[in-house]
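Here is the promised in-class demo. Please do not try to memorize the tokens; focus on the logic of going from shape to residues.
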């Protein structure tokens, strides 16, 4: 599909696999672990790479291919691979691109498990790391070393919703000849396309907004072909590939991403404004609020402010947990990006692997709450939060 000719919504819906002889309107599901050859010569040609074709679903499959092609189109990237989960995408990109003696420069404000890989697993392989605050350009500049090979960040960050300046960081990476990676799971390609700012690779946990209904795990790496190829070599051998069924679900889900993100963002922004006026809340973080220190950068990089809102309750863990326990509509689970609204206490769940000092450094306090705002009626959601704040002990 011509990526320049059509807008986001049309590309998300109209880019799909070629019809088979059955003339199906919706792409079928290819549940097969391997593919047959017409003859021995063709088997040899496909294995040898002189002829294109599917071999084995760990390497490629029509459903995973359709999902990846569509994501590349939406992210404005030339190549991609799908992975079993978001963490498989994070881990694959690190291990495929780093070697013993290398250094990775990453933001401190990232998903707890990504942070665990950088600080606990990579050092066992002889990879050094430096962590900086996502919104501190000077720290990014000073963080590069002679052996830096990768820069990794999330924007908006999880769970503090800080914004990293992608253009500035991508320019630094180019000057140093370093590969830049952005986890775009919070924004999705509907809100921002990191490649447009010069970022080399984009990571997704497709488990979140791309699926959007809390059903399947999945992930992807998209970006510059030469770098994606190195990740593909690693994953086709090590096996953290996406299942055809999950790819089929995710490709269908991309069709409705734009309309879902519009509603997520509208609901989240309304809640953020409402919370700002509540005297039981010490502060609210939402990228498009005037009080957000990087509101103008967020507006430069993002179409809308996103579906997550974070805030601090005046009080400690007991008050935060009491607030969460008094919610009726919001689900109590650690996921995000679902049609159902979710309330999370990062200090005791998603970021509990960090010690108190590490949590404090990135702004996670005992009263800190993250809301993944879903697609329910906004008046019902606000009433639920209001009720839980009133009943909070
Ligand atoms: C920003 C971010 N990246 C990556 C992941 C990992 O994704 P998955 O659960 O699909 O492995 C998560 C999970 O919550 C996340 O929030």
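The designed amino acids, position by position:
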């Amino acid at each position: 599909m011509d990526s320049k000719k059509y807008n986001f919504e049309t590309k998300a819906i109209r880019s799909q696999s070629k019809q088979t002889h059955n003339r199906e309107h919706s792409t079928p599901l290819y549940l097969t672990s391997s593919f047959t050859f017409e003859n021995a010569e063709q088997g040899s040609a496909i294995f040898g790479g002189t002829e294109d074709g599917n071999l084995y679903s760990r390497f490629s499959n029509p459903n995973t291919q359709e999902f990846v092609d569509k994501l590349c189109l939406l992210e404005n990237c030339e190549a991609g691979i799908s992975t079993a989960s978001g963490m498989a995408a994070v881990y694959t990109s690190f291990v495929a691109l780093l070697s013993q003696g290398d250094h990775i420069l990453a933001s401190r404000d990232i998903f707890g498990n990504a942070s665990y890989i950088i600080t606990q697993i990579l050092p066992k392989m002889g990879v050094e790391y430096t962590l900086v605050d996502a919104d501190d350009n000077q720290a990014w500049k000073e963080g590069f070393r002679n052996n830096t090979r990768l820069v990794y960040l999330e924007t908006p960050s999880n769970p503090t919703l800080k914004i990293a300046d992608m253009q500035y960081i991508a320019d630094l990476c180019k000057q140093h000849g370093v590969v830049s990676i952005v986890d775009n799971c919070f924004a999705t390609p509907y809100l921002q396309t990191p490649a447009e700012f010069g970022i080399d690779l984009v990571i997704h946990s497709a488990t979140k907004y791309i699926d959007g209904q809390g059903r399947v795990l999945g992930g992807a790496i998209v970006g510059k072909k030469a770098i994606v190829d190195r990740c593909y070599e690693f994953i086709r051998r090590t096996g953290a590939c996406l299942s055809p069924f999950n790819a089929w679900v995710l490709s269908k889900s991309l069709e409705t991403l734009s309309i879902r993100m519009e509603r997520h963002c509208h609901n989240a922004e309304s809640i953020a404004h409402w919370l700002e006026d509540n005297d039981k809340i010490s502060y609210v973080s939402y990228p498009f609020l005037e009080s957000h220190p990087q509101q103008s950068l967020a507006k430069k990089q993002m179409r809308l402010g996103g579906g997550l809102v974070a805030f601090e309750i005046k009080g400690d863990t007991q008050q935060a947990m009491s607030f969460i326990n008094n919610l009726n509509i919001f689900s109590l689970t650690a996921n995000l990006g679902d049609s159902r609204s979710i309330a999370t206490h990062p200090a005791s769940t998603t970021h509990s692997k960090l010690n108190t000092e590490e949590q404090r450094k990135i702004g996670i306090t005992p009263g800190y709450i993250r809301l993944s705002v879903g697609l329910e009626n906004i008046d019902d959601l606000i009433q639920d939060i209001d009720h839980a704040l009133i009943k909070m002990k």
